[in-house]
Amino acid sequence: MLTINRIKIEGFGSIVDELELEFKSKGLTVINGQNGVGKTTIFSALSWALYGQSLKEKSTVLTWEEIRPGDYRGCKVEVELHINDKPYHIIRCLEWQDKVEGVRGGNRLLVYPDDDVPKGQREVKAYLIDKLGYSFDLFRNSIAFGQKAKRIIEESNGKRKEILEQALDISFIRDALASVEKEHKELRLERDSLESELNEVEEKLEEAKDELSSAKEAIQSFEAEKQSDIDDCENEISELKAKKADLNFKNTIGSNAYKGLLDEHRKLEDKIASFDEGSLNDLRAYVKSFEDVIKGLKKQKSKADEQLTAESPECEYCGKKLLEDEYKKLRAKALLSSQELDGEIAKNDKLLNRAKNKLNKAIKAQQDELAYVLRLEEVEDKLEAYRKEEARIEANKTLASDYEDAMHRMTSRISRIKTRSLDIDLIKLKDRVSSVKKRRKLASMKFKSVEARINTLNWLRKEPLSSGGIKAYMLDQMLVKINSRLQQYSKYTGFEVEFGVDMESRYKDFFQFIYKNGIVKPYHDLSGGQKQLVDVVTALAIEDITSEALGCNIVLMDEVFESLSLDNIEIVGNLISEKARSKGVYLVTHRDEFQPSNSQRMQISLENNSTVIRIG
After folding, report:
1. How much is the mean pLDDT over the chain?
2. Strand-pair category, 554-558 with 144-145
3. Which of 142, 333, 339, 584 has its CA 20 to 30 A from that of 349?
């Protein structure tokens, strides 16, 4: 049972300042007022607070900017109600600037008590609708008959079925289908997850098997490589032994031949050192000096001989020929000079010959020195060969020591290789393969179990819970109740409305008929007043049936007399008054002629842009 007790509105549509209204659970309240003062806005605010939707499909929630005061705080609507005698306080805000229950309002939906209210706006909204027991569509087709709101007859085929299922309390089948669909979706996700898990387990099993196989191969390869390394070391030791055996350690550096060469080398160096290159050069210069003296003497003698043979030489001063006496004296002098020169030349020839002998001896000594030098080079080459051989012998000794060290290292390496092991635990790998196989078995069993449940749910979805299953049959049977109520109302309106399910059709199509004097009248062919009359009685019939299953203490009706004639206003008015005997009916109307007895009037007006309610 839903009992709506009180509503408090601020900043919603044309209602700027805070407005509070307490609902009665019985009696008729007629609401009057000029257009735009907020009559319908009260109903829309209630719908918005409960469902987040106004009764009109396109209507503004926030107060229009042109009438907002400077201290406009946003929109906030509070509703106090009871659900099965348990009190609830609902607060919905839109751009609310102040705090609500200690937190900033903003765009919030709050439900108190909140001990079992979920987190998240969508979750809270779903929670609230579930608690109310009314969907938005059922609310606006049974509790709130709004002006220009979409009527059930104008709804789509599927939407009409959904609303009537709720009204007839067979929505449990739809809920069951929804539950099945939810479980089906969850199980499909679980199956996909299990399939992924199974594939993952299969991959892990293959990986474990591959790892085990690789480990075995690695161990075999490791042992083979280990033996190969040992063989290589042993081969290298054999090669080193052979190389060491081939080394020549014969020492020649201390032999007599080597000593003789050293002695000869010293003597040759002494002989070569005794030669003086400077004395040889001096002898050459000495010889040349004698040659130059003799050359000069011979030149003087030649000149003297020319004077002896000359007939009458000329005076060297005046150029005249000399006298006979002077000539004789000059000739005698020249003869004497020539003889003296011959003696000097002979003397110098002797000295020259001695100098040449000395020079020849020095040249011969130089030639002997060159022979010594060549021999010395030959001796030095032999000594160098002896030294190289000694170096080779010393190198062989070092090399032999290196070979010995290398053999020791190879022997040590063989010992290390033999103790080398591979860090692979075959038992652990085998256990892992066994463990993954068990996981695969469990995952496979779980996958098959889920797959079987999905198949069962598929059957439920396609057979008993489908639109052509038990739900269609139950809806068709339960529609008898609502059609019975509509038939009772037809006595007053002259129109008989009938809902049903075509059980012969493939998809169990939903249908509705409107009869007038036994003749089917299409809804769109009715006049405005006739449509309004049909809509009102349909809403009242749905509210009657809904009250049996769910029940709400109020009914909200907005301009139900629209397009009705005076006779039909009286008929509808009587039906509304009858409804007000058990419900709190709130009726918005501009028809002044509608003044039922035992009703309460509520006058709504605007004063200084604030909506004011006066009840009288």
Report:
1. 81
2. parallel
3. 333
